[in-house]
Amino acid sequence: MKKIWFLALGLGLALVLAVVGLAACTPGTTTVNTGYQQEGIWATGQGKVTVVPDIATLQLGIEAQAATVAEAQAQASQAMDRVMTTLTNNGVAKKDIQTQYFNITKITRWDDKNQREVIIGYRVTNIVTAKIRAIDKAGAIIDAVAVAGGDLTRIDSISFSIDDPTPYLAEAREKAMADAKAKAEQLARLSGVTLGKPTYISESSYFPSPAPIRLGDKEASSVETPISPGETDITISVQVVYAILK
Prior knowledge:
Layout: E1 6-7, E2 41-51, E3 55-66, H1 69-89, E4 97-111, E5 116-132, H2 138-149, E6 153-161, H3 166-191, E7 194-206, E8 213-214, E9 232-245
Parallel strand pairs: 1-2
Antiparallel strand pairs: 2-9, 3-5, 3-6, 4-5, 6-8, 7-9
Helix pairs in contact: 1-2
């Protein structure tokens, strides 16, 4: 007895008919094997939810340069203490501040006369990330940090994310499943068969990781730094195999 299988591709609705024992392969098509997951109507669905980020992650730090390591460390330590105090005074929790990079580097110059490098000082760099949950305060916090750190301040970048994507993933998943079912129902109707229950479901989700926006050196200003989180898309794709009722 012949069996008919249906394959719905995500970028369009394409039908592939195959007979048990016969595998006809053509360029651009997917070969259907005889495994149980291949039997039925295949459909892909996509669900997307657009969300306004609620977390701003600021990467900032201190860079001090002096003739000796001790001097450079002392300058960097004092400036970073002021920066940390400013962050916590502006509502950033200590658990949301994390050291990302600490480095002490020799500064050298080339001595043409003696044909060698000469140490002329040391640079201390201390970089942290600060997670700002009151995202509307991000601009004011950047300005306050710039004042606290003074000329040693480094403000590298800011990125935006979603603290808890779970409810948005659930909404996107519902949309994706509804999209897949609508496609499968249309295929079943066009083919004159009855759609059964799903026998196989595969899911993949995507929401962009925070892309850092470079801010560059920040100088104290009477005008607050404008910060806008914009929007981000959370997307879920599903592939569903529906049984064909006999």
